UniProtKB/TrEMBL annotation:
This is (2Fe-2S)-binding protein. It holds the Pfam family Fer2_2. Gene3D superfamilies: 3.10.20.30, [2Fe-2S]-binding domain. SUPFAM superfamilies: 2Fe-2S ferredoxin-like, CO dehydrogenase ISP C-domain like. Residues 10-86 form the 2Fe-2S ferredoxin-type domain. InterPro entries: 2Fe-2S-bd, 2Fe-2S-bd_dom_sf, 2Fe-2S_ferredoxin-like_sf, 2Fe-2S_ferredoxin-type, 2Fe2S_fd_BS, Beta-grasp_dom_sf, Diverse_Oxidoreductases.
């Protein structure tokens, strides 16, 4: 005998990090908790649970969004990209991940996945973002450990690496 679905659970079909899947979610469960607890994608962190800190940022249909402010059932048919989806198919890190490591742009790391998901969108839309534009994107993220300067440098380094990579293609 199979276990019955929880009362009120709804099936949702979505694409997470390139994988199409169908799962069940309670209507009141937010996307951050669904990703972490139901799908095991614990790289998406939950901080303030009010959309202020940015720790839960993921990409939804190519745009960064606070997953604590969206219900899992609202993700029906959406393409979700989490920090686990940044590395390529061969497991090589995204240039922004490499730059963060090389330039020590993180300390405790709690805010880092959300920051990375926002700056990846920036890098995908701006090949050479100014420090001011980078800081504007970072203004939606709270980091208590760094002074953000190494984060800005890491974004600039990743942008340069991505430009060089595209020039060689």
């Amino acid at each position: 005998m199979s276990n019955p679905l929880p009362s009120g659970s709804r099936p949702i079909t979505l694409c997470v990090n390139g994988q199409n899947l169908t799962a069940h979610a309670e209507p009141r469960v937010n996307l951050a908790d669904f990703l972490r607890h139901d799908l095991g994608l614990t790289g998406t962190h939950v901080g303030c649970e009010h959309g202020v800190c940015g720790a839960c940022t993921v990409q939804i249909d190519g745009h960064s969004a606070r997953s604590c402010l969206m219900l899992a059932v609202q993700a029906q048919g959406k393409h979700i990209r989490t920090i686990e989806g940044l590395a390529n198919e061969q497991g090589c890190w995204h240039p922004i991940q490499e730059a963060f490591r090389e330039l020590h742009a993180l300390q405790c790391g709690f805010c880092t996945p959300g920051i990375l998901m926002s700056v990846v969108e920036l890098l995908e839309n701006h090949s050479d973002p100014s420090p001011e534009l980078i800081r504007d994107v970072l203004s939606g993220h709270l980091c208590r450990c760094t002074g953000y300067q190494n984060i800005v440098r890491a974004v600039q380094k990743a942008a340069a690496a991505m430009r060089a990579s595209h020039a060689h293609e």
